[in-house]
Amino acid sequence: MPDALREQPSGDLRVAVLGVGMMGAFHADALATRTKGARVVVVNDFAPDKAAEVAARVGARVVDDPIAAIDDPEVDAVLIATPGRAHAEQVQACLDAGKPVLCEKPLTTDEASSYALVEAEARLGRPLVQLGFMRRFDAEYAALKQLITSGGLGNPLLVHCTHRNPTVPDFFTEEFMIRDSVVHEVDVARFLLDEEITAVQVLRGVATSAAPEGTSDPMIVVFETASGRLVTDEIYVRSGVAYEVRTEVVGESGSAMIGLDQNLVRTSTDGRWGGTITPGFVERFGQAYDTELQRWVAAARRGTIDGPGVWDGYAAVAVCEAGVQAVRTGEKVPVVLKPRPRPSTSSDGGSGNDHEPGITEPDLIASRP
Ligand SMILES: NC(=O)C1=CN([C@@H]2O[C@H](COP(=O)(O)OP(=O)(O)OC[C@H]3O[C@@H](n4cnc5c(N)ncnc54)[C@H](O)[C@@H]3O)[C@@H](O)[C@H]2O)C=CC1
Ligand SMILES: O=C1[C@@H](O)[C@H](O)[C@@H](O)[C@H](O)[C@H]1O
Protein backbone atom coordinates (compact mmCIF):
# COMPACT_ATOMS: atom_id res chain seq x y z
CA MET A 1 0.00 0.00 0.00
CA PRO A 2 1.38 3.46 -0.82
CA ASP A 3 2.47 5.35 2.33
CA ALA A 4 0.14 8.28 1.67
CA LEU A 5 -2.81 5.89 1.53
CA ARG A 6 -1.94 4.40 4.91
CA GLU A 7 -2.02 7.85 6.46
CA GLN A 8 -5.48 8.92 5.39
CA PRO A 9 -8.45 7.86 7.45
CA SER A 10 -10.86 6.61 4.78
CA GLY A 11 -8.28 4.39 3.08
CA ASP A 12 -9.86 5.33 -0.23
CA LEU A 13 -7.58 5.52 -3.23
CA ARG A 14 -7.40 9.20 -4.17
CA VAL A 15 -7.32 9.44 -7.94
CA ALA A 16 -6.38 12.19 -10.40
CA VAL A 17 -8.15 11.86 -13.74
CA LEU A 18 -6.27 13.41 -16.67
CA GLY A 19 -8.32 14.16 -19.77
CA VAL A 20 -12.06 14.26 -19.17
CA GLY A 21 -13.38 14.02 -22.69
CA MET A 22 -15.58 11.09 -23.63
CA MET A 23 -13.62 8.29 -21.93
CA GLY A 24 -12.15 10.21 -18.99
CA ALA A 25 -15.54 11.63 -17.97
CA PHE A 26 -17.00 8.14 -18.15
CA HIS A 27 -14.24 6.74 -15.92
CA ALA A 28 -14.47 9.69 -13.50
CA ASP A 29 -18.20 9.11 -13.09
CA ALA A 30 -17.57 5.39 -12.59
CA LEU A 31 -14.98 6.12 -9.89
CA ALA A 32 -17.36 8.51 -8.15
CA THR A 33 -20.51 6.42 -8.32
CA ARG A 34 -19.87 2.76 -9.19
CA THR A 35 -16.49 1.89 -7.71
CA LYS A 36 -15.61 0.88 -4.17
CA GLY A 37 -12.55 2.17 -2.34
CA ALA A 38 -11.74 5.16 -4.53
CA ARG A 39 -12.63 8.78 -5.06
CA VAL A 40 -11.62 11.39 -7.60
CA VAL A 41 -9.75 14.20 -5.88
CA VAL A 42 -8.18 15.98 -8.86
CA VAL A 43 -9.33 16.55 -12.42
CA ASN A 44 -7.17 17.91 -15.22
CA ASP A 45 -7.98 18.74 -18.83
CA PHE A 46 -6.56 21.11 -21.42
CA ALA A 47 -10.11 22.38 -21.80
CA PRO A 48 -10.82 24.25 -18.51
CA ASP A 49 -14.61 24.15 -18.95
CA LYS A 50 -14.62 20.36 -19.23
CA ALA A 51 -12.35 20.02 -16.21
CA ALA A 52 -14.56 22.33 -14.14
CA GLU A 53 -17.76 20.54 -15.13
CA VAL A 54 -16.49 17.05 -14.29
CA ALA A 55 -14.73 18.21 -11.12
CA ALA A 56 -17.96 19.78 -9.85
CA ARG A 57 -19.89 16.61 -10.62
CA VAL A 58 -17.50 14.25 -8.83
CA GLY A 59 -16.51 16.60 -5.99
CA ALA A 60 -12.88 17.09 -7.01
CA ARG A 61 -10.44 19.99 -7.43
CA VAL A 62 -9.21 21.20 -10.82
CA VAL A 63 -5.44 21.28 -11.29
CA ASP A 64 -4.49 23.07 -14.49
CA ASP A 65 -1.21 21.37 -15.28
CA PRO A 66 -1.21 17.58 -15.91
CA ILE A 67 2.21 16.97 -14.33
CA ALA A 68 1.26 19.03 -11.27
CA ALA A 69 -1.92 16.93 -11.04
CA ILE A 70 0.17 13.74 -11.01
CA ASP A 71 2.58 15.17 -8.42
CA ASP A 72 -0.20 16.57 -6.23
CA PRO A 73 0.42 15.35 -2.65
CA GLU A 74 -3.24 14.43 -2.21
CA VAL A 75 -3.12 12.06 -5.22
CA ASP A 76 -2.35 8.33 -4.70
CA ALA A 77 -2.95 7.09 -8.25
CA VAL A 78 -3.66 8.41 -11.73
CA LEU A 79 -6.09 7.58 -14.50
CA ILE A 80 -4.94 8.85 -17.90
CA ALA A 81 -7.58 9.36 -20.58
CA THR A 82 -5.89 12.04 -22.63
CA PRO A 83 -5.22 11.34 -26.32
CA GLY A 84 -2.42 8.83 -27.04
CA ARG A 85 0.08 11.52 -28.03
CA ALA A 86 0.08 12.84 -24.42
CA HIS A 87 0.59 9.47 -22.73
CA ALA A 88 4.40 9.09 -22.93
CA GLU A 89 5.14 12.17 -20.82
CA GLN A 90 2.24 11.62 -18.41
CA VAL A 91 2.96 7.92 -17.75
CA GLN A 92 6.64 8.74 -17.23
CA ALA A 93 5.62 11.38 -14.66
CA CYS A 94 3.57 8.73 -12.82
CA LEU A 95 6.60 6.43 -12.73
CA ASP A 96 8.79 9.30 -11.52
CA ALA A 97 6.26 9.93 -8.74
CA GLY A 98 6.00 6.20 -7.96
CA LYS A 99 2.21 6.29 -8.41
CA PRO A 100 0.07 3.50 -9.93
CA VAL A 101 -1.51 4.52 -13.23
CA LEU A 102 -4.31 3.18 -15.38
CA CYS A 103 -3.53 4.49 -18.87
CA GLU A 104 -6.05 4.26 -21.68
CA LYS A 105 -4.77 2.56 -24.81
CA PRO A 106 -2.56 3.09 -26.71
CA LEU A 107 0.39 3.24 -24.30
CA THR A 108 2.07 5.81 -26.57
CA THR A 109 2.08 6.60 -30.27
CA ASP A 110 5.51 5.18 -31.12
CA GLU A 111 7.53 2.12 -30.22
CA ALA A 112 10.59 3.93 -28.86
CA SER A 113 8.65 5.94 -26.27
CA SER A 114 6.68 2.83 -25.23
CA TYR A 115 9.86 0.85 -24.70
CA ALA A 116 11.34 3.72 -22.68
CA LEU A 117 8.41 3.26 -20.29
CA VAL A 118 9.04 -0.51 -20.13
CA GLU A 119 12.64 0.23 -19.14
CA ALA A 120 11.67 2.96 -16.67
CA GLU A 121 9.23 0.65 -14.90
CA ALA A 122 11.82 -2.15 -14.85
CA ARG A 123 14.26 0.20 -13.13
CA LEU A 124 11.65 0.79 -10.44
CA GLY A 125 11.33 -2.96 -10.04
CA ARG A 126 7.56 -3.10 -9.52
CA PRO A 127 4.57 -2.95 -11.85
CA LEU A 128 2.82 0.41 -11.70
CA VAL A 129 1.45 0.83 -15.24
CA GLN A 130 -1.80 -0.83 -16.26
CA LEU A 131 -3.22 -0.49 -19.77
CA GLY A 132 -6.87 0.13 -20.60
CA PHE A 133 -7.32 -2.97 -22.73
CA MET A 134 -10.78 -3.45 -21.26
CA ARG A 135 -11.77 -6.38 -23.46
CA ARG A 136 -9.75 -8.65 -21.16
CA PHE A 137 -12.35 -7.83 -18.50
CA ASP A 138 -15.37 -8.47 -20.71
CA ALA A 139 -17.36 -11.55 -19.68
CA GLU A 140 -17.50 -12.90 -23.24
CA TYR A 141 -13.77 -12.50 -23.90
CA ALA A 142 -13.00 -14.03 -20.51
CA ALA A 143 -15.23 -17.01 -21.36
CA LEU A 144 -13.56 -17.43 -24.75
CA LYS A 145 -10.13 -17.35 -23.14
CA GLN A 146 -11.28 -19.92 -20.61
CA LEU A 147 -12.59 -22.17 -23.40
CA ILE A 148 -9.23 -22.02 -25.17
CA THR A 149 -7.09 -22.63 -22.09
CA SER A 150 -9.29 -25.52 -20.96
CA GLY A 151 -8.67 -27.18 -24.34
CA GLY A 152 -12.33 -26.97 -25.34
CA LEU A 153 -11.50 -26.03 -28.92
CA GLY A 154 -8.36 -28.14 -29.28
CA ASN A 155 -5.31 -26.36 -30.64
CA PRO A 156 -6.43 -22.87 -31.75
CA LEU A 157 -5.53 -22.37 -35.42
CA LEU A 158 -7.16 -19.15 -36.54
CA VAL A 159 -8.73 -16.05 -35.02
CA HIS A 160 -11.16 -13.90 -37.02
CA CYS A 161 -12.02 -10.46 -35.68
CA THR A 162 -14.53 -7.86 -36.81
CA HIS A 163 -14.30 -4.30 -35.47
CA ARG A 164 -16.90 -1.87 -36.76
CA ASN A 165 -17.66 1.59 -35.46
CA PRO A 166 -20.72 3.40 -36.79
CA THR A 167 -18.92 6.67 -37.33
CA VAL A 168 -15.68 8.46 -36.50
CA PRO A 169 -14.22 11.95 -37.05
CA ASP A 170 -12.22 12.65 -40.23
CA PHE A 171 -8.89 12.47 -38.34
CA PHE A 172 -9.30 8.68 -38.38
CA THR A 173 -6.79 8.06 -41.16
CA GLU A 174 -5.57 4.53 -41.91
CA GLU A 175 -2.67 5.15 -39.52
CA PHE A 176 -5.01 6.28 -36.75
CA MET A 177 -7.34 3.34 -37.39
CA ILE A 178 -4.40 0.99 -36.79
CA ARG A 179 -2.99 2.75 -33.74
CA ASP A 180 -6.29 3.58 -32.03
CA SER A 181 -8.74 0.85 -33.10
CA VAL A 182 -6.81 -2.21 -34.36
CA VAL A 183 -4.66 -1.98 -31.22
CA HIS A 184 -7.58 -3.69 -29.43
CA GLU A 185 -7.39 -6.76 -31.69
CA VAL A 186 -3.62 -6.85 -31.26
CA ASP A 187 -4.16 -7.19 -27.54
CA VAL A 188 -7.04 -9.65 -27.99
CA ALA A 189 -4.86 -11.90 -30.17
CA ARG A 190 -1.98 -11.82 -27.68
CA PHE A 191 -4.39 -12.42 -24.78
CA LEU A 192 -6.28 -15.31 -26.39
CA LEU A 193 -3.35 -17.08 -28.01
CA ASP A 194 -0.79 -16.33 -25.32
CA GLU A 195 1.99 -15.56 -27.76
CA GLU A 196 3.50 -12.59 -29.53
CA ILE A 197 2.64 -11.30 -33.01
CA THR A 198 5.56 -11.51 -35.40
CA ALA A 199 4.31 -10.01 -38.68
CA VAL A 200 1.54 -7.76 -40.02
CA GLN A 201 0.01 -7.29 -43.43
CA VAL A 202 -2.77 -4.87 -44.41
CA LEU A 203 -5.10 -5.30 -47.37
CA ARG A 204 -6.94 -2.29 -48.75
CA GLY A 205 -10.04 -2.66 -50.88
CA VAL A 206 -12.91 -0.50 -52.04
CA ALA A 207 -13.56 2.27 -49.53
CA THR A 208 -16.92 3.41 -48.23
CA SER A 209 -18.10 6.69 -49.72
CA ALA A 210 -18.34 7.91 -46.09
CA ALA A 211 -14.53 7.93 -45.85
CA PRO A 212 -12.56 11.06 -46.75
CA GLU A 213 -10.92 10.96 -50.19
CA GLY A 214 -7.89 8.62 -50.11
CA THR A 215 -8.73 6.87 -46.80
CA SER A 216 -9.08 3.10 -47.03
CA ASP A 217 -11.98 2.17 -44.79
CA PRO A 218 -12.56 -0.79 -44.36
CA MET A 219 -9.25 -2.66 -44.33
CA ILE A 220 -8.31 -6.26 -43.57
CA VAL A 221 -5.34 -6.67 -41.25
CA VAL A 222 -3.59 -10.04 -41.06
CA PHE A 223 -1.32 -10.93 -38.15
CA GLU A 224 1.06 -13.88 -37.90
CA THR A 225 2.00 -15.16 -34.47
CA ALA A 226 5.25 -16.64 -33.20
CA SER A 227 3.98 -20.20 -33.69
CA GLY A 228 2.61 -19.40 -37.19
CA ARG A 229 -1.08 -18.93 -36.38
CA LEU A 230 -3.07 -16.44 -38.46
CA VAL A 231 -5.34 -13.70 -37.11
CA THR A 232 -7.57 -11.62 -39.40
CA ASP A 233 -9.13 -8.31 -38.44
CA GLU A 234 -11.74 -6.41 -40.43
CA ILE A 235 -11.47 -2.81 -39.34
CA TYR A 236 -14.35 -0.67 -40.56
CA VAL A 237 -14.89 2.51 -38.60
CA ARG A 238 -17.54 4.23 -40.74
CA SER A 239 -20.02 1.39 -41.13
CA GLY A 240 -22.93 3.76 -40.55
CA VAL A 241 -24.77 1.01 -38.67
CA ALA A 242 -23.72 0.28 -35.07
CA TYR A 243 -20.84 -0.85 -32.86
CA GLU A 244 -20.06 -4.43 -33.83
CA VAL A 245 -17.14 -6.29 -32.28
CA ARG A 246 -16.94 -10.02 -32.94
CA THR A 247 -14.19 -12.56 -32.43
CA GLU A 248 -14.17 -16.15 -33.61
CA VAL A 249 -11.54 -18.70 -32.67
CA VAL A 250 -11.21 -21.75 -34.90
CA GLY A 251 -9.55 -24.71 -33.22
CA GLU A 252 -8.74 -28.27 -34.23
CA SER A 253 -11.81 -29.63 -32.49
CA GLY A 254 -14.28 -26.77 -32.74
CA SER A 255 -14.85 -23.06 -33.07
CA ALA A 256 -16.40 -20.38 -30.87
CA MET A 257 -17.60 -16.87 -31.60
CA ILE A 258 -18.38 -13.96 -29.28
CA GLY A 259 -20.07 -10.63 -29.90
CA LEU A 260 -23.00 -12.04 -31.82
CA ASP A 261 -25.97 -11.08 -29.75
CA GLN A 262 -24.93 -9.08 -26.72
CA ASN A 263 -27.82 -7.17 -25.23
CA LEU A 264 -30.14 -9.02 -27.56
CA VAL A 265 -33.78 -8.25 -26.99
CA ARG A 266 -35.76 -10.04 -29.62
CA THR A 267 -38.58 -7.86 -30.87
CA SER A 268 -41.48 -8.61 -33.18
CA THR A 269 -43.00 -5.63 -34.90
CA ASP A 270 -44.20 -4.60 -38.32
CA GLY A 271 -44.13 -8.20 -39.51
CA ARG A 272 -40.40 -8.58 -38.78
CA TRP A 273 -38.39 -9.92 -35.86
CA GLY A 274 -35.02 -8.74 -34.70
CA GLY A 275 -32.90 -7.29 -31.92
CA THR A 276 -30.86 -4.22 -31.17
CA ILE A 277 -27.16 -3.77 -31.72
CA THR A 278 -25.09 -1.70 -29.30
CA PRO A 279 -24.60 1.81 -30.70
CA GLY A 280 -21.14 2.41 -29.22
CA PHE A 281 -18.29 1.02 -27.13
CA VAL A 282 -19.65 2.28 -23.82
CA GLU A 283 -22.88 0.32 -24.31
CA ARG A 284 -21.02 -2.80 -25.52
CA PHE A 285 -18.19 -2.78 -22.99
CA GLY A 286 -19.79 -0.99 -20.02
CA GLN A 287 -19.35 -3.99 -17.74
CA ALA A 288 -15.76 -4.47 -18.88
CA TYR A 289 -14.75 -0.84 -18.22
CA ASP A 290 -16.26 -0.95 -14.74
CA THR A 291 -14.71 -4.30 -13.83
CA GLU A 292 -11.34 -3.10 -15.15
CA LEU A 293 -11.59 0.01 -12.99
CA GLN A 294 -12.67 -1.83 -9.85
CA ARG A 295 -9.84 -4.33 -10.14
CA TRP A 296 -7.32 -1.58 -10.83
CA VAL A 297 -8.50 0.35 -7.76
CA ALA A 298 -8.15 -2.74 -5.56
CA ALA A 299 -4.67 -3.42 -6.92
CA ALA A 300 -3.54 0.22 -6.79
CA ARG A 301 -4.50 0.33 -3.11
CA ARG A 302 -1.89 -2.43 -2.70
CA GLY A 303 0.55 -0.38 -4.82
CA THR A 304 0.40 -2.68 -7.85
CA ILE A 305 -1.65 -3.53 -10.97
CA ASP A 306 -4.13 -6.26 -11.91
CA GLY A 307 -4.37 -6.54 -15.68
CA PRO A 308 -2.41 -5.89 -18.86
CA GLY A 309 0.84 -4.13 -18.01
CA VAL A 310 3.43 -1.92 -19.62
CA TRP A 311 4.87 -4.81 -21.63
CA ASP A 312 1.46 -5.52 -23.15
CA GLY A 313 1.15 -1.83 -23.99
CA TYR A 314 4.60 -1.80 -25.60
CA ALA A 315 4.06 -5.00 -27.59
CA ALA A 316 0.76 -3.67 -28.96
CA VAL A 317 2.35 -0.37 -29.99
CA ALA A 318 5.22 -2.23 -31.70
CA VAL A 319 2.74 -4.34 -33.69
CA CYS A 320 0.75 -1.23 -34.64
CA GLU A 321 3.91 0.53 -35.78
CA ALA A 322 4.61 -2.41 -38.10
CA GLY A 323 0.94 -2.19 -39.17
CA VAL A 324 1.34 1.46 -40.12
CA GLN A 325 4.39 0.56 -42.21
CA ALA A 326 2.39 -2.28 -43.77
CA VAL A 327 -0.38 0.15 -44.79
CA ARG A 328 2.17 2.48 -46.36
CA THR A 329 4.14 -0.16 -48.25
CA GLY A 330 1.60 -2.88 -48.95
CA GLU A 331 4.23 -5.35 -47.72
CA LYS A 332 4.18 -7.90 -44.94
CA VAL A 333 6.16 -6.24 -42.15
CA PRO A 334 7.95 -8.23 -39.44
CA VAL A 335 7.57 -7.30 -35.77
CA VAL A 336 10.74 -7.64 -33.74
CA LEU A 337 10.23 -6.89 -30.07
CA LYS A 338 13.06 -5.60 -27.94
CA PRO A 339 14.19 -7.74 -24.99
CA ARG A 340 11.73 -8.02 -22.15
CA PRO A 341 13.36 -6.77 -18.97
CA ARG A 342 13.29 -8.84 -15.82
CA PRO A 343 11.87 -8.77 -13.20
CA SER A 344 8.48 -9.18 -14.78
CA THR A 345 6.63 -5.96 -15.45
CA SER A 346 3.23 -7.54 -15.93
CA SER A 347 0.78 -8.59 -13.26
CA ASP A 348 0.88 -12.21 -14.39
CA GLY A 349 4.62 -12.76 -14.32
CA GLY A 350 4.50 -14.61 -17.64
CA SER A 351 4.10 -13.58 -21.25
CA GLY A 352 1.69 -10.90 -20.22
CA ASN A 353 -1.23 -12.93 -21.49
CA ASP A 354 -2.09 -15.23 -18.63
CA HIS A 355 -4.27 -12.76 -16.82
CA GLU A 356 -7.80 -14.03 -16.61
CA PRO A 357 -10.08 -11.52 -15.03
CA GLY A 358 -13.02 -12.98 -13.17
CA ILE A 359 -16.34 -12.76 -14.90
CA THR A 360 -18.03 -11.68 -11.73
CA GLU A 361 -16.70 -8.88 -9.59
CA PRO A 362 -18.02 -8.99 -6.06
CA ASP A 363 -16.73 -5.53 -5.22
CA LEU A 364 -18.45 -3.90 -8.14
CA ILE A 365 -21.36 -1.81 -6.96
CA ALA A 366 -23.09 -1.59 -10.33
CA SER A 367 -21.75 -3.05 -13.50
CA ARG A 368 -23.70 -1.26 -16.23
CA PRO A 369 -23.46 2.42 -17.06
N1 LIG B 1 -10.74 1.58 -24.11
C1 LIG B 1 -11.58 2.08 -25.00
O1 LIG B 1 -12.46 1.40 -25.50
C2 LIG B 1 -11.49 3.51 -25.40
C3 LIG B 1 -10.33 4.18 -25.19
N2 LIG B 1 -10.19 5.47 -25.60
C4 LIG B 1 -8.90 6.09 -25.36
O2 LIG B 1 -9.08 7.10 -24.36
C5 LIG B 1 -8.26 8.22 -24.63
C6 LIG B 1 -9.14 9.45 -24.76
O3 LIG B 1 -10.04 9.28 -25.82
P1 LIG B 1 -11.42 10.08 -25.90
O4 LIG B 1 -12.01 10.23 -24.56
O5 LIG B 1 -12.19 9.45 -26.98
O6 LIG B 1 -10.88 11.51 -26.40
P2 LIG B 1 -11.54 12.95 -26.18
O7 LIG B 1 -10.96 13.81 -27.24
O8 LIG B 1 -13.02 12.84 -26.05
O9 LIG B 1 -10.97 13.40 -24.77
C7 LIG B 1 -9.63 13.73 -24.55
C8 LIG B 1 -9.56 14.87 -23.54
O10 LIG B 1 -8.21 15.10 -23.20
C9 LIG B 1 -7.96 16.52 -23.19
N3 LIG B 1 -6.52 16.69 -23.46
C10 LIG B 1 -5.89 16.64 -24.65
N4 LIG B 1 -4.57 16.70 -24.46
C11 LIG B 1 -4.37 16.81 -23.13
C12 LIG B 1 -3.21 16.90 -22.32
N5 LIG B 1 -1.98 16.87 -22.85
N6 LIG B 1 -3.37 17.00 -20.98
C13 LIG B 1 -4.61 17.05 -20.43
N7 LIG B 1 -5.75 16.96 -21.16
C14 LIG B 1 -5.62 16.83 -22.48
C15 LIG B 1 -8.88 17.08 -24.24
O11 LIG B 1 -9.17 18.46 -24.00
C16 LIG B 1 -10.11 16.19 -24.10
O12 LIG B 1 -11.06 16.70 -23.19
C17 LIG B 1 -7.46 7.86 -25.90
O13 LIG B 1 -6.24 7.30 -25.52
C18 LIG B 1 -8.35 6.82 -26.57
O14 LIG B 1 -7.63 5.94 -27.41
C19 LIG B 1 -11.21 6.14 -26.19
C20 LIG B 1 -12.39 5.52 -26.41
C21 LIG B 1 -12.64 4.15 -26.02
O1 LIG C 1 -10.90 2.39 -28.05
C1 LIG C 1 -11.79 2.74 -28.76
C2 LIG C 1 -11.72 3.97 -29.57
O2 LIG C 1 -10.68 4.78 -29.14
C3 LIG C 1 -11.49 3.50 -30.99
O3 LIG C 1 -11.37 4.63 -31.82
C4 LIG C 1 -12.63 2.62 -31.43
O4 LIG C 1 -12.40 2.16 -32.75
C5 LIG C 1 -12.74 1.42 -30.51
O5 LIG C 1 -13.82 0.63 -30.91
C6 LIG C 1 -12.92 1.87 -29.08
O6 LIG C 1 -12.98 0.76 -28.22
Short description:
The chain folds into two domains: 3-135 and 286-309, Rossmann fold, CATH 3.40.50.720; 138-284, Dihydrodipicolinate Reductase, domain 2 (2-Layer Sandwich), CATH 3.30.360. It is 36% helix and 21% strand. It has ten helices and 15 strands.
Q: Can you walk through the features of this model?
A:
Residues 334-369 are annotated as: Disordered. The chain is globular, with a radius of gyration of 20 Å. The protein folds into 2 domains: 3-135 and 286-309, NAD(P)-binding Rossmann-like Domain (Rossmann fold); 138-284, Dihydrodipicolinate Reductase, domain 2. The chain is an alpha/beta fold. The two termini are 29 Å apart. The strands form 3 sheets. A 7-stranded mixed β-sheet has the order 12-11-7-10-9-8-15, covered by helices on one side. A 6-stranded parallel β-sheet has the order 3-2-1-4-5-6, sandwiched between helices. Strands 13-14 form a two-stranded antiparallel sheet. Helix 3 links the parallel strand 2 and strand 3. It has helices spanning 3-7, 22-33, 48-58, 66-71, 87-97, 111-124, 139-149, 174-193, 281-301, 310-329; strands at residues 13-18, 38-44, 61-62, 77-80, 101-103, 129-131, 156-164, 197-204, 219-225, 230-236, 244-251, 254-258, 267-269, 272-274, 333-334. 36% of the residues lie in helices and 21% in strands. The structure holds 1,4-dihydronicotinamide adenine dinucleotide (NAI) and (2R,3S,4s,5R,6S)-2,3,4,5,6-pentahydroxycyclohexanone. Residues 18-24, 44-47, 50, 66, 81-84, 86, 104-105, 132, 134, 180, 281 line the site of 1,4-dihydronicotinamide adenine dinucleotide.
